[in-house]
Specification:
The chain has 67 residues and is mostly helical. The chain contains four helices and no strands. This is Arylamine N-acetyltransferase.
């Protein structure tokens, strides 16, 4: 996954150093930006859980995550 594309998707800057505060901020932004959705199931789409498939769905196609 392209980290910068993901950070752009959630509207976050790359943290200067790894820290608990930085992780909390990234998690908050993800939760506020990437909704839960069940459209793929409803539309009968195949559920793909590989890194490239999820990255494409969440980042490039700007869709939501699944549970």
């Amino acid at each position: 996954m392209d980290v910068q594309e993901y950070l752009d998707r959630i509207g976050a800057a790359r943290p200067p150093v790894p820290s608990l505060a930085a992780l909390r901020e990234l998690q908050r932004r993800h939760l506020e930006t990437v909704p839960f959705e069940n459209l793929a199931i409803t539309l009968g789409e195949a559920i793909e859980l590989g890194e490239e498939a999820l990255s494409g769905k969440l980042v490039r196609r700007r869709r939501g995550g699944i549970c």
